[in-house]
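The passage that follows is intended for readers who have already worked through the single-chain material. We present the inputs for a multi-component assembly, then the predicted structure in tokenized form, and finally a short commentary. You are encouraged to pause after the input and sketch how you expect the pieces to fit together before reading on.
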Amino acid sequence: MTANQTKLTNLASRSKQIKLAKQRDTSQLAVSLVAYVFIGAFALFCFIPFWLVYIGSFTAESQIVQGFRMLPTKFTLDAYRFLLQGSQVYQSGFVSVFITVVGTAGAVLITSMFAYVVAHPKVKYRYVLSFYIYFTMLFPPGLVGYYLLISNWLGLRDSLLALLLPLLFSAFNSFLMTSYFRTLPFELNEAATVDGAHELYIFYRIIWPVSMPVIATIALFYALSYWNDWFNALMFIDDPHIQPLQMMLRRIVSNSQNLDYLNTNVNIPVSATGVQLSAVVITIGPIIFLYPFLQRYFIKGITIGAVKG
Amino acid sequence: MRIWRELRKNKWLYAMSLPVVVYVFTFSYVPMSAHLLAFKQFSPGKGLWGSEWIGLDNLTFFFTGPDWLGVTVNTIYLNLLFIAAGTICSLCIALLLNEIRHAYFKKVSQSLVILPHFISIVIVNLMVINFFNGQDGMINRIFSQLGFEPVYWFQTPAVWPCLLTIIFIWKGAGWGSIIYLATLTGFSEEYFESARIDGAKRLQQIWYITLPLLRPTIIVLTLLGLGRIFYGDFGLIYGIIGDNSLLFNSTDVIDTYTYRSLRSTNMNSYSNAAAVALFQSVMGLITILFFNWVVRRVDNDSKLF
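Having made your guess, compare it with the prediction:
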């Protein structure tokens, strides 16, 4: 092959490459454009209701009856003042924080221990344990049994335990954790056993520290289910002293005449809507605040569970 | 004896599982006994075991009543809408998020689409009321500005399957996309590299490479959804519709129906509710066994058991 010929083929292949690259660019560009527009639009669709609620909670009564606005027209803190000078919001807030903290701690503790045992290769009956849980997903106990259990058999009506116990264990969370623990190298653990370490010691000193992503994920799931629970309160709690925030919100939403419930004795003319919206902001507040810290954990946690599970 | 030896050998490990074993026994297995009420006439004084057996009367009452077909059809229909719309939207979000190169934009938009998942139904309910209520609702204002007639949403059952689906998408599609996105990012870059060299356009790569690779995930998630087709989304539906009987025609599902029978002042309300719950559990068990059998045939690795 002469030098000229080589040069020619090189040139030809390069021009083909350039053509390809251009083609790729336009098709890539079109897809990217669609992606930005669609994702941007959907993100806005998800976000706008939150924004409207947030703005609405600062809007004066005279303006809010004319409908929600994207931008505040007449700024006021009256709704918050009304809500925060009542005693109910503190009581309910305390109940919510209490069940969320205590419930999540207990739930994470028992779930992680159980999931670890199910994942442990030394445990001969791990599949029996796993099926024992799985069967409850196939054949759930049903609403009637659940109601009878909590209110009649255990007698937990109007007790904080009726808010704590029902959410203490979730089969789904347990399976997510099990599939994470299965990915851990068990040699790590055998070495410790040979050294004579106690099983509990191994679990808390060796397994727990390397499982932070999945523990954080599960903790987040449990915390959200406690924080957002209203159904158990609706069924079992009539005493306003132990109704959580979500139940307080539900009561003032389902009946706008119910503002007395908030126990405010200040006389500020407020619209029911304004108070509802400020209560929503207070209820969502902690979630939004913690969200950025937790997000990097839970995406990782779910990913591990989903791909390996 | 063998069992004892195993339990003794790993006594600490079994002890660690004990809290959950006891818990699940109390909170899941014990309440299962309430299914027996379907065959009894419950009287609160005598309790579950003391109440009289009345054979199939409660079940006959449910199946000869006017409601059973309606609530069953609604449950299945709404679930099908949720599964179809949910899968398509979650898939689109995952595929398109994957196309976004701008890291900051990606992170912010992903956070925003997941956010509604973390909000309680009570709050969603409040938003829905304020946006759709009466003539002052936000949507009707927009309608009147555009020259449309206002729609009285809370009195029009026909619009609710669609509205509930939109709310379901708003709340869950972003969250559902995480699993697809996680699977997507695990695919080897080599497939796409070689496709590019062969001149495949981006859209062709998505259609001929990404989607077929995602197929098993899509199938399994869909079948899991179908397996729960007899279980209505109680939180979403009861949380938003509540006891608004004007909308029951299109929105009453088995779960909300059971809840109302349970709360009704009817003498025999517990037993009636138990009959419905039994019907639901049995149908649920049959469907999940059926779809698990289907999954086994489609993709044996993804079977549930």
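Commentary: The first helix of chain A runs from residue 3 to 56. The mean pLDDT of chain A is 82. How closely did your sketch match?
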